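User: Design a sequence. Structure:
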């Protein structure tokens, strides 16, 4: 879950002023508390929380995309995300992915059904929304419910994404310089990107250094993966900014007071979580993805 200082949004919310800053800070505290609380609780609480978060992302994507049969698409997506989270949490990742893929196809067909002809782009885009939200849900559930180091792996992700977002924001504002990608996100700078990635990776390294038994985790590979995850999280931020620019909106939704929508807050985290789950699963299998991510 991206930090309140996520640089994908403009520096000031609409309206500005101290009241808005206070609202953003309060909302940020609530988001961080819920994320850490679900991580600490683990088990079904974690699964349910992230299935709900994934649904919020999916809901916003569908309403941005528009199209036909919205109610049917929402129901299909909700069932698929709940089932995918349950399967992933019990180690049945293949079933989770199969459910998401089949449901995404059904959503794509539904979005174009009854229009006289199938609007290929809009239909495919609607189905992609489920894969976007579902990949995040499956990834965090696979990591948290791993045999070893599940909580540490998710906390590592939080530290990297939050650290990257905060330090990219302040680094970019203090140093400035050449813009990272002006057509998509005019406020981002290369200085902010570099500082954010470096600091985010260090934050993740600190989590592992203080929570894993000395000598168990190899810190150099963890630092390297942290740098990659931090950079990828910034790519996720740009991806979501491009979506908003395409649809001509400032925020993906209004779910979070002072912050916009769930997509606005989770853009970088989604990409980083998928990366982490893929690396860990490729190394030691999905049932031990967290261990595969942090121990080399």
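Assistant: Done.
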């Amino acid at each position: 879950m991206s930090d309140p200082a996520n640089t994908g949004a403009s520096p000031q919310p609409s309206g500005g002023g101290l009241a808005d800053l206070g609202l953003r800070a309060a909302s940020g505290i609530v988001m961080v508390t819920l994320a850490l609380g679900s991580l600490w609780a683990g088990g079904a609480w974690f699964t349910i929380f992230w299935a709900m978060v994934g649904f919020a992302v999916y809901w916003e994507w569908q309403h941005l995309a528009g199209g036909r049969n919205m109610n049917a698409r929402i129901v299909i997506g909700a069932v698929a995300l709940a089932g995918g989270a349950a399967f992933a949490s019990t180690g049945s990742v293949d079933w989770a992915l199969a459910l998401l893929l089949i449901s995404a196809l059904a959503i794509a067909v539904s979005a174009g059904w009854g229009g006289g002809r199938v609007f290929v782009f809009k239909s495919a885009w609607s189905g992609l929304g489920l894969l976007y939200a579902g990949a995040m849900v499956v990834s965090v559930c696979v990591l948290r419910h791993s045999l070893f180091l599940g909580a540490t792996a998710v906390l590592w992700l939080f530290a990297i994404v939050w650290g990257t977002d905060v330090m990219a924001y302040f680094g970019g504002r203090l140093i400035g310089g050449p813009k990272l990608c002006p057509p998509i996100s005019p406020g981002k700078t290369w200085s902010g990107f570099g500082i954010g990635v470096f600091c985010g990776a260090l934050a993740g390294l600190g989590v592992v250094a203080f929570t894993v038994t000395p000598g168990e985790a190899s810190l150099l590979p963890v630092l390297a993966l942290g740098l990659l995850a931090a950079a990828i999280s910034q790519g996720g931020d740009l991806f979501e900014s491009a979506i908003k620019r395409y649809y001509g909106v400032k925020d993906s939704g209004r779910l979070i007071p002072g912050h916009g929508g769930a997509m606005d807050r989770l853009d970088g985290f989604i990409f980083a979580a998928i990366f982490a789950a893929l690396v860990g699963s490729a190394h030691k299998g999905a049932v031990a993805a967290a261990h595969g991510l942090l121990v080399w």
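Residues 244 and 250 are 6 Å apart (CA to CA). The chain has a mean pLDDT of 88.
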